[in-house]
Each structure stands twice: as structure tokens, then as C-alpha cells.
Write a structure and sequence with these properties.
Layout: E1 9-14, H1 18-29, H2 31-38, E2 42-48, H3 55-60, E3 64-67, H4 75-84, E4 89-91, H5 94-111, E5 115-116, H6 127-134, E6 142-146, H7 149-161, H8 165-174, H9 183-186, H10 189-203, H11 222-230, E7 234-244, E8 247-257, E9 270-277, E10 281-288, H12 292-308, E11 327-337, H13 342-352, E12 357-365, E13 368-379, H14 380-392, E14 401-406
Parallel strand pairs: 1-2, 1-3, 3-4, 4-5, 8-14
Antiparallel strand pairs: 6-7, 6-9, 7-8, 9-10, 11-13, 11-14, 12-13
Bound molecules: NADP nicotinamide-adenine-dinucleotide phosphate.
Amino acid sequence: MAAEGSKPVRIGLLGRGTVGGAFAELVESRADAVEAATGRRPEISGVLTRSEGDFGAILERSDLIVELIGGTDPARQYAIDAMRAGRPLVTANKQLLAQHGDELFGIARESGVQLRFEAAVAGVIPIVRTIQESFGATEIDKVFGIVNGTTNFILSEMASTGAGYDEVLGRAQELGYAEADPTDDVNGADAAAKMAILARLAFHTPITLDEVPFEGIESIQPDDLAYAKELGLSLKLLGVAERVDGGVSVRVFPCFLYPGHPLAPIEGPFNAVMVEAPEITEVTMSGPGAGGLQTASAVLGDVVSVIAGEVPVHETRERLPVVRDVASSFYLYLEVADRPGVLARIATLLGDHGISVKSFVQRGIGDDARLVMVVHQCLESRFAAAVEGLAELDDMRGPPRSIRVIEEQF
Ligand SMILES: NC(=O)c1ccc[n+]([C@@H]2O[C@H](COP(=O)([O-])OP(=O)(O)OC[C@H]3O[C@@H](n4cnc5c(N)ncnc54)[C@H](OP(=O)(O)O)[C@@H]3O)[C@@H](O)[C@H]2O)c1
């Protein structure tokens, strides 16, 4: 944004809910600090909600627009109109960017305005700025982490208390860590939208939301967490975006981690993101995953950046192929009849699919036994075929359950 002496920066605020309300207060309480950092004082020049304000009039008297409405309609149109009118745009809206990234980045480029969206991904962690600026000339191999605080809180509570998913979800709702309708958080869709954005930034390729398969945590059993503890594992909902065989793979799935992993100690409603590249080895950042004040502070950080100077507008380069079948290690839970030969039959079937067992726990319950194992890395399609074969064995007393495991040692 061009320096204009000591003229205030007029901010048009779209949405004054949880984040917008906190942002309006922060603009007032931190106006001196913003002025000291940038030479210009911020002020809210107009507010649009469902019951107040007129977008056209707000646009007219604003130097930049902050969109905190959420969703894509009417947020998308306001974002387009603002940028086409030459106003930089700051937003916390992951859906907007995950679904309409190509269009919005294109308009920002054509209009020569900044589009900032730090608060849309991984809460307060400055991962967007880090990828775009600090690692702007780095060939990133992999970005991954815990990008949904709700699910991290639920999994941490299930592991520490032994309580079931439904009970812990209720507690998360009481504490304000989960929304009344938690569907998009717990089924992985929210994390998928964030990973689509991170993958686009890290690999300069136009990944869209429908190219990000996601699995959630709804069917995780307290048993899985208890057995995993015996194997020294902790469970997280991970988003992973990585280069694979000349293409990219972007996915969200629940996943066990070994104790030395930098993401293993991240508990409660926190987020953490790791970036890997040959020249940086690996960088990990963690922080609160959401919250009105926390998100508003990330939005204000973007406003400071917009006022302070230009940043290259995000550009996509080549479209990289999306790789669907990647290699993973797995935790496998089997309930089987406790009779002679069952272990040999299971080992043979796994061996026939080229799958080898890394660690193993057995517990008897009456005539049945529970077998819990971690298998070494193999192609996911191969593992799925083996699980299908196991499910058909007469020895099975229930459907096999499997969860991915990150084997990487740190
Ligand atoms: N809450 C968090 O912790 C968090 C964290 C990260 C990112 N975000 C993102 O931040 C954004 C805002 O979230 P929030 O939690 O602050 O939402 P919210 O509390 O529901 O507030 C939404 C605001 O937008 C206004 N609004 C809704 N539809 C509108 C329309 N058609 N026209 C004009 N105004 C409209 C609402 O107006 P009324 O006041 O009239 O209802 C309200 O002021 C979302 O994109 C969200 O994903 C939130």
C-alpha cells in the first residue's frame, strides 16, 4: 500500500461476529502500535453485518477491506468487488480460498492488490507468511501438521481420560472448542480446506478442495488409543501435503505418531505445522488453533503487512499431477477367534501382500483375542487389499480397524 504521509488507513470491516468483533476492538486498542510499526494509524471506516452497513458505501470510504463474514456467498463477490476496485483484501475465510483460490489470486494479480489470509490456516501460526516470504525461494518437499484444534482437543482428551468420542465431543462443545454443528471439524473437511490452501502455496500448483481426500475422527475407539499407548503412539488428525513421484499428494487422516515426533506433544486445541525442504531440514511452529481474539490478532498482522509493504502476489506455476496411492505405515486392530493357526494365517495373508509387521500386542478376551500391530510402510492400495482379505477370514470376530502411522524418526 503506497505511503500516504500520516493519513489514517481506513478499514472497511465485513462481518462483526466472533472474529470481526475482536478485530474491531484490537484495531482500537493497538492503533498506536500499528502506527508505530507502519507510520499509519488504522481506523474502522465502516462495518457490514446482516443488519447494518452498505457494501458500496463502505468500499467507497475504505483503503482496504477485511472480510470476516465466512462462507462463500456473499463473501466471494465482496472480495472480488473490493480487489477489482483496487482495495487490498484481508480475510480469515478458508472456504473462500480453498474453493475459489484460482479466481481470487488471479484477480489480486490483475488488480495489483494484496490478498492476505494468514488467519485462514492454522490459527495464529504465521505459516502463510512463512511459506510465501521466508521460504519464498525454497523448494518445499512437504507441509504437514495439526490444522484443526477441535479434533486435537478431542483426541487429547480421549487419550488422557479413556472417555469415548461422543462424551468428549460434548465436553468440547461445552468448553467452546467445538461448534454446535461440529461436522466439518470432526470429519476432516475443515482441515482439508486448509491443506488445499497450504499445498497451493507450498507447491505453486492449483490444488482444489475436491482433490484432497479426507477422513475424520468420528469412528476412533477408546480401545485404539489405549492399545496405541502400549505401543508408545499418540493419535493426531494430520493434514499432509507432499511431493510424490513428480506429483503432489494432499490428504487428511487420523494418524499415530511415535513419541520423538515434533507433533506428538501437541495437545489440546492447538495447531502445529511442519515444513520440510533439503535446505531448511525441518521447521515446526505451533500455537492456538482458533478463538476470536487469537484469530483477530492474525488478521491485524495481515493488516500491518498490507500497510507496511508489497508482497509478490501468489502465482501458480505448472499443474502438478495429484498422486492418490502413497506409501504409509499402519496400525491394525483385529478381533479374532483364539484358536490354533490364526496368527499364522494372518501373517501369511499379510506376507502375500508384501506387508511386514513392525510391532505386535496380543490380548485374550474369553474365546476371542485382540491382535494389535503396526506394519511397515507399504502402498495404501496394497494395505487396503490385505485388510479386505483379512475381513474375509473365518477367524475374524469383527471388522478390522486400521489407522495410519508416521514411522519417520526425528
Ligand atoms: N471463530 C474462529 O475462531 C475462527 C478461526 C479462524 C477463522 N475463522 C474465520 O473467520 C470468519 C468469521 O468467523 P466468525 O466465527 O467471526 O463468524 P460469526 O461469529 O458467525 O460472524 C459472522 C459475521 O458476518 C456477518 N454476516 C453473515 N452473513 C452476512 C451477510 N450475508 N452479509 C453481511 N454480513 C454477514 C454476521 O452478521 P450478523 O452480526 O448480523 O449476524 C456476523 O457479524 C470465517 O471465515 C471463519 O471461518 C474463525
